[in-house]
Amino acid sequence: MQNKAKTTTSQLTKLFVSLFVAILVLVNIAFLVISSGYIYYSAKSQSEQLITAVEENLEPQYDWSALLDAYLAKQDDDAIILTTPQGRTYYSEDAHETFKDINHKRHYQNFVVSHKHIYFLAREGHHGYRIHVALNVDELFNLITWLLLTMLGINLVAILISILLIRRFAHKWSRPIQTMNAEIQDIRKNKTPERKVTIPDNPLEIRNLAQSFNNLLSFQNNALKREQQFVSDASHELKTPIAAIRGHVNLIKRRGQSNPEIISTSLDYIDSESKKMQLIVNELLTLGRIDQNNDDVTPIDLVKIVSDVVNEVQTVYPQKIISNLPEQLLFPIKPTDFRNIAHNLVENAAKYSPADSEINVVLKKQADKLLFQVADHGIGISQENREKIFKRFYREDKSHSSKVGGYGLGLAIVKAEVDKYHGQITVEDNTPQGTIFSVYLPKEK
């Protein structure tokens, strides 16, 4: 049978009340032990003083029948028995009856209970004399009993008050959790994943939990957006090539047998359009796979990545690429992320630059940032379009762009990677013409 789930308030209340009761029990036990010790040593001290007083005055000529009562306190029921070396025994008032009754009772160490009275017994021998003392310790026991009952009453009141106070404080401590749960349920019911839970100031554990949940919620929202964006972009951009491919397939089916010459032309067109589809899908997948988690990155040498990218682009495009790179530059970033930035910026510069122009690539540390810069002498970018170029599928010069490969996703990939590392990308005019792209990445995330 499954146990019924308990609230944090009830669990905290039960825990702290149990601890409080356990502490009270230990305190009461300690009080009993200390009180018992106090009664024992107090009675022992009184008996020793009484015996010492008798021993100091032991003389054979004394009539101890009258003297023994003088050594006793005014309290009733104290008793002394003195036995001389000659074997004669003297009793204080009522001592004979008291010791006769005590001797028939069960002893507990030096204590014995008789007729609702408690006595402390002590015996001592001195030069042939034997002294027996029975001290009534009722007052001590009554005092300790009264104190114990008072403590138990105070304990009971303290427990009742503690239940109310601890429950109140437990409810206050658990309120941030209840608030988080209500906000999470509200987010789920209202289908508003953009909302976040409130982060309390205290306690620290709940604060960290709320922050972690918000980070997880943000990660899931970004993943959902990337998925939705991928579906939207793919459906939008793949419609045209798919329609063209389907058109040529249908053309081959209808007229291929009667006009065989159209098969070769259609297949070339289908091959071209399928390659375009492959390129679009690859770039969309690159955008969709950009993970915002960069907590586990380690420093890598960026010089080698830039050199490899420059060599790759140089083998495909005719422009002269001039690199200004240090011997080594270590920076904490994932290799694929920085390669996406470098490759897309350098290839983009080559696509939109004259064949006989130069492209300058710079990599260096600047103050507390990393600077990666690509400058070309191409067609340039107008001021009003410098924010738009980082949008997906945006092409500034439609007429010129139709002659250039690509689908407007390169700079979108660069912007996504730069944002991932909390960096900045700027666009400036080059002299006498062209564009300078500058990427700034902070050393600390």
From TrEMBL:
Residues 233-445 form the Histidine kinase domain. It catalyses: ATP + protein L-histidine = ADP + protein N-phospho-L-histidine. InterPro entries: HATPase_C_sf, HATPase_dom, His_kinase_dom, HisK_dim/P_dom, HisK_dim/P_sf, Sig_transdc_His_kin-like_C, TCS_sensor_his_kinase. It is found in: Membrane. The keyword Transmembrane helix applies. The chain crosses the membrane at residues 12-41, 143-166. Coiled coil: none annotated. Gene3D superfamilies: 1.10.287.130, 6.10.340.10, Histidine kinase-like ATPase, C-terminal domain (3.30.565.10). It comes from the Bacteria. The keyword Nucleotide-binding does not apply. One of its GO terms (molecular function) is protein histidine kinase activity. This is histidine kinase. It comes from Lactobacillus amylovorus subsp. animalium.
